[in-house]
Design goal:
This protein is mostly helical. The chain is about 60% helix and about 0% strand. It contains four helices and no strands. The longest helix has 15 residues, at about 35-50. The radius of gyration is 11 Å and the shape is globular. The chain starts with a helix and ends with a helix.
């Protein structure tokens, strides 16, 4: 799952997947702004067939929180 999220991030943020650190965070990626955050959320919702609430979206600011949120939704 983590690798699929990183692939999606690479597409949305227009960066090389191999350059994404294991502990990627919103404030460490230039292209991870508010618009691309929403684009990422929409892409993840489609990929994993889940839906996020606004408060959940606001929490999803690093890959660990994203993985945790998706795991909770798909469990």
């Amino acid at each position: 799952m983590r690798q699929e999220i990183k692939k999606t991030m690479a597409v949305i943020f227009k960066i090389n997947e191999n350059s994404i650190p294991e502990n990627i965070e919103m404030n460490k990626i230039v292209n991870w702004d508010s618009l691309n955050h929403l684009n990422l959320i929409v892409a993840l919702e489609e990929k994993f067939k889940v839906s996020f609430e606004p408060d959940e979206i606001a929490e999803m600011v690093n890959i660990d929180k994203i993985v945790d949120m998706i795991q909770r939704k798909t469990a």
